[in-house]
Specification:
42 residues, little secondary structure, flat
């Protein structure tokens, strides 16, 4: 197995990609009983 180790000096911060973007859960409308992450366990 090959593993690459990334150190802080290998990463360049390019700044904000999408201003005002939000992270969230998107569920297709045909999945009627899924309204939260907890529902995915069922």
């Amino acid at each position: 197995m090959f593993t690459t180790r990334i150190t802080k000096k290998d990463v360049e911060n390019l700044g904000v990609n999408l201003k005002g973007a939000r992270v969230g859960l998107a569920v297709p409308t045909y999945m009627k009983n899924i309204n939260s992450i907890e529902d995915l366990k069922k």
